[in-house]
Protein: Fructose dehydrogenase cytochrome subunit
Amino acid sequence: MPDLARKILCSVLTAGTALVTLSMAPARADEPSAELLARGEYVATAGDCIACHTRPGGKPFAGGLSMTTPMGNVISTNITPDPDHGIGKYTEQEFEQSVRHGIRRDGSRLYPAMPYVSYSGMTDEDVKALYAWLMHDVKPVAETPPATELNFPANLRITMAVWNLVAGSTTPETGDSATFDKLRRGRYLAHALEHCGTCHTPRNMMLTEKEGSYLAGASLLGWYAPDITPSKTGGIGNWTEDNLVAYLRTGHVNGLSQAAGPMGEVVEHSTSHLTDADLHALAAYILQVPAMDDDVDHTPREQFGQVLNTPDIRTGELTRIDRLDEMDGQHVYDANCAACHGDNGAGTDDHYAPSLFHNGVVGSARPDNLIMTVLHGVDRTAGNEHAFMPGFDQKSDVQRLSNAEIASVVNYVMTTFGSGNHNVTAEQVGTMRSGEATKVP
Structure:
């Protein structure tokens, strides 16, 4: 073999051997362990990061979700490790500043739609794990969401520095959060990772959580996040720990309530994936916070109503989807609701379609959640269980109901099976339909 050919062959064999050796070498010391990555994924799930940082039909964590606030719409950012469109250039310290303190890599302030006030209580270990998982296991997406544009003065991000002084923060927990005892672990989940107070605690005119009213209920994007303190009247004081665990795992507890809207998303993306130990820890903690009696609900929401025993008035006449004349509440119910919930309101035998009596949504003194459910329906997956109810808004594939018809059927259902006639008006439904129902409680 000529010398030149022999030298080329030796070089190729040497390079190939080096590549094989490198591929068989142990991971570098700076590469995160499988255990750290698994922990980071669990922290991201408990923190429900995907719910806000993924727009409908969008790629995971690429941002673009529009969140309504009294000052305008906040658009979530891309938190994939793409270096130009996401957080790929963030150091771990810069990431910690963002998650715990609401300060971006460029030094500007985040809006508190990102719940950094709650995340400020995260342990160092959990922040580190979350950073490692986002940087190593999440697929980069080269998309930049539209910029957030708020009304003055909120459009000046520097004003968030003043807001932060009013809102305060939580001192980070210390130690390994996985080793906390049951109640401490439950408190950590409720206050930091799951940030329950972000939705369920009422806010003042400065949009900070009202001190001393933790989990007492608050309006949210047209929905109402109810009082979940252990109050025997306005809250969930009649629920057992197992009841609350079942609700967090599946989004439904027969005879009590079911999750839709934002809470349905929490169940689907977050709580249904928690361990049994964490679900029991979270439930046990919530059920021992100070009870707050609701300003409106003075009777347990789940205790209203009974099976309706009246003649079936349905005629068998089909209703066209383009029918223009409006029906009263009872006829709207019979035409659109009775097929699943029963003409007597008892639901299906397997509880897939829930009973409308002994139902926390129908028994509430606030009609908000029932209106929003009729408008937008339910589409929730928890484990292998998929709960679905079509909406009846202008995008409906089954029947598009007018504002007056939705008001009528809500009044009928709440009068017949729940807390009474709340005199819901077509104007009220129109406001909620248009997304203008956000307000400071």
